[in-house]
Specification:
The chain has one domain: Glucose-6-phosphate isomerase like protein, domain 1 (Rossmann fold), CATH 3.40.50. The radius of gyration is 16 Å and the shape is globular. Helix 3 packs parallel to helix 5. The chain has 200 residues and is of the alpha/beta class. The protein contains 6 helices and 7 strands. The chain has a 5-stranded parallel beta sheet. The chain has a two-stranded antiparallel sheet with strand order 1-2.
């Protein structure tokens, strides 16, 4: 296998985390990322495309300083993953409820001015998406087979509902972000442990 074809983590790690397991619904936009539909109706995402998009997203995020990145997850399964991402990169994280207006209303005492938004799911995280649109900042979103992607600048196809899948995605994004920033050279230098991101 050439460097180019190598996955960011071994293929079986992706498969065990269920990062490729979609939902029974698929939107037109997500079709190019779908590898097949199982007999039980679940759509399966293409691992190669997930891996490619994670590389692109990490490179894109590395154009920003960590403190300018805002990560939001309304869904509880993403809370731990985004908190660890923030811990290792220095990004801002809002697990649970995103306080509407904190990006658009300078009179709020928790007003912030991120330069890029990363959301676990654009639908539950729509308040943050709406604020980012008003601010005109780019939006990166994890997108499952059932996601719409209007207003999203960069979609990362993946299972955005499972705890393990989300843990793995944010582990990879944190590690690759630091590599792209030149803060670490090799995977082994990343201080976080994959198990820490993925444990139940």
């Amino acid at each position: 296998m050439t460097e180019q074809q190598q996955f960011l983590v071994p293929q079986d790690v992706y498969l065990k985390a269920g990062v490729h397991i979609g939902t029974k619904f698929k939107t037109k936009y997500m079709e190019p990322f779908i590898y097949k539909t199982r007999p039980d109706g679940l759509s399966i995402l293409n691992l190669q495309k997930i891996d490619e998009r994670l590389k692109i997203a990490a490179k894109f995020l590395a154009n920003y300083e960590a403190e300018d990145i805002l990560v939001v997850s309304r869904r509880e399964n993403g809370w731990k993953a985004i908190e660890l991402f923030a811990k290792y990169t220095g990004a801002m994280a809002y697990p649970a409820r995103y306080p509407p207006g904190i990006m658009t209303n300078p009179n709020l005492k928790n007003y912030i001015e991120p330069k890029v938004l990363l959301v676990v799911d654009a639908w539950p995280d729509r308040n943050a998406v709406a604020d980012a649109l008003k601010r005109g900042i780019p939006i990166v979103a994890l997108c499952d087979t059932n996601n719409q992607v209007n207003n999203i600048d960069l979609a990362i196809p993946c299972n955005n509902k499972g705890k393990k899948a989300l843990g793995l995605v944010f582990y990879i994004l944190a590690r690759e972000y630091l590599k792209n920033k030149g803060k670490i050279q090799k995977d082994e230098e990343f201080p976080g442990k994959i198990e820490e991101f993925m444990e139940e």
